[in-house]
């Protein structure tokens, strides 16, 4: 019997993405696999059922009962995953950090669960890396939100009513989201500065036509990530930054350190020094925020400055975000298959690192 790859309609608040698109469904079918979706699974992403050729549709209970592999943009509720068979694979963005209880429930149920957030950042993993693909979407959307919230134009405008100077935008953190934010703000005509604590980002920022802001702090960590700053480094960074912020119209902050609270970079005093009408979009809001005034999913007005803490930005561009994440999922699924059978090789670090539950055991405790 061919392996059945399945997906449900996502139910998290505001979630509009889908884990299987018509394109990845075609790929699975071409490999001799079966594809089973909950009715309307892709509708909110812009993929109505009619666009999925040769795909079967069913209700939630049937999809769960027949799935060999369930792909998920966000972790399904424990009560929902309970409908999966023993030995079934659950694969997706499973938000494993701090989720010990959920992982224990999946393990007790005999599921094999793979959380793609735990992929190592190696060249081979890139095509499966959902954090990267969705961070790029978030960086793009953060700039659109900022432009919408700002009382100023981004580009320079020369009109009969006079000349408008371009907005000055600072992007904090030049990882995947930050670089996409820099590129997007530049395309809108803003004058952009970027900074990061990893020294190799200087060239990347400059290659996008932005200025690299040197705050005199360098903190490269392991695995291509940043490390946490020492108290002294943090103080130095903040002092230099406060001065610079006075001239900024928009700040997009994207700084993160894996598995930890987002670094606190912007204090209330720094925000109070900014121009009236300045806008901060803090995309680290979900992990605590880079600004101490950020509140997730809320627009905070502090004096004359607005601080936006959007959550799940990628869901706001659901069609392209789904196309990207669905390809990541399809590429990882490919790793699990040998001659059409589900045979994960636990000697492969991509598989062992991401596996959080298998054979009744918790493999990563959250
Ligand atoms: P991230 O989301 O963990 O962090 C975002 C950025 O914030 C990073 O650039 C980090 O250096 C920066 N940062 C952390 N603390 C800071 C501070 N106090 N002040 C300023 N900036 C701070 O990172 P990410 O975007 O997921 O990617 C980080 C790195 O991993 C990049 O080098 C990226 O190219 C690399 N990467 C590799 C792969 C792969 O090879 N598979 C995939 C994705 C990303």
Task: Please sum up the structure shown.
The chain is α/β, with parallel strands linked by helices. It has helices at residues 22-30, 60-66, 78-81, 100-108, 130-149, 176-187, 201-207, 231-245, 268-272, 318-336, 349-354; strands at residues 4-7, 34-38, 56-58, 69-72, 89-92, 112-115, 157-159, 162-164, 168-172, 191-195, 211-212, 250-253, 279-282, 299-302, 305-308, 337-338, 341-342, 355-358, 361-362. It has 2 domains: 4-118 and 317-360, Rossmann fold; 138-315, NAD(P)-binding Rossmann-like Domain (Rossmann fold), CATH 3.40.50.720.
Report on the structure:
The chain is an alpha/beta fold and 366 residues long. The protein folds into two domains: 4-118 and 317-360, NAD(P)-binding Rossmann-like Domain (Rossmann fold, 3-Layer(aba) Sandwich); 138-315, Rossmann fold. It has eleven helices and 19 strands. The protein has helices at 22-30, 60-66, 78-81, 100-108, 130-149, 176-187, 201-207, 231-245, 268-272, 318-336, 349-354; strands at 4-7, 34-38, 56-58, 69-72, 89-92, 112-115, 157-159, 162-164, 168-172, 191-195, 211-212, 250-253, 279-282, 299-302, 305-308, 337-338, 341-342, 355-358, 361-362. An eight-stranded mixed β-sheet has the order 3-2-1-4-5-6-18-19. A seven-stranded mixed β-sheet has the order 11-10-9-12-13-15-14. α1 packs parallel to α10, α5 (130-149) runs parallel beside α6 (176-187) and α5 (130-149) runs antiparallel to α10 (318-336). The two termini are 34 Å apart. The model has no long low-confidence stretch (mean pLDDT 95). Residues 121-123, 125-126, 129, 131-132, 135, 172-178, 196-198, 224-226, 229, 254-258, 263, 265 line the site of nicotinamide-adenine-dinucleotide.
């Amino acid at each position: 019997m061919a392996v059945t790859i399945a997906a449900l309609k996502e139910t998290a608040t505001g979630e509009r993405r889908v884990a299987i698109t018509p394109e990845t469904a075609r790929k699975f079918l071409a490999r001799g696999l079966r594809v089973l979706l909950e009715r309307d699974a892709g509708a909110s992403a812009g993929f109505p059922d009619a666009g999925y050729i040769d795909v079967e549709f069913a209700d939630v209970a049937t999809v769960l009962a027949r799935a060999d592999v369930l792909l998920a943009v966000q972790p399904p509720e424990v009560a929902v995953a309970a409908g999966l068979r023993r030995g079934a694979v659950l694969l997706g963005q499973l938000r494993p950090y701090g989720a010990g209880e959920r992982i224990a429930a999946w393990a007790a149920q005999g599921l094999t669960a793979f959380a793609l957030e735990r992929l190592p950042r190696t060249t081979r993993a890139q095509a499966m890396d959902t954090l990267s693909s969705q961070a790029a979407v978030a960086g793009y959307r953060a700039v659109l939100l900022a432009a919408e919230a700002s009382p100023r134009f981004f580009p320079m405008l020369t009109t009969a009513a006079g000349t408008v100077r371009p907005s000055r935008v600072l992007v904090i953190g030049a990882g995947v989201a930050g670089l996409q934010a820099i590129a997007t703000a530049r395309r809108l005509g803003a004058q952009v500065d970027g900074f990061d604590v990893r020294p190799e980002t200087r060239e990347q920022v400059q290659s996008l036509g932005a200025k690299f802001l040197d705050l005199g702090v360098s903190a490269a960590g392991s695995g291509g990530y940043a490390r946490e700053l020492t108290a002294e480094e943090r103080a130095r960074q903040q002092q230099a930054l406060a001065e610079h912020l006075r001239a900024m119209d928009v700040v997009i902050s994207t700084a993160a350190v894996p598995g930890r609270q987002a670094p606190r970079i912007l204090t209330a005093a720094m925000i109070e020094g900014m121009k009236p009408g300045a806008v901060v979009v803090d995309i680290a809001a979900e992990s605590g925020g880079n600004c101490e005034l950020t509140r997730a999913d809320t627009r905070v007005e502090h004096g004359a400055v607005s601080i936006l803490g959007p959550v799940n930005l990628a869901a706001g561009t659901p069609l392209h975000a789904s196309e990207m994440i669905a390809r990541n999922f399809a590429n990882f699924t490919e790793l699990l298959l040998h001659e059409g059978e589900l045979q994960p090789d636990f000697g492969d670090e991509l598989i062992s690192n991401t596996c959080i539950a298998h054979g009744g055991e918790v493999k990563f405790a959250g």
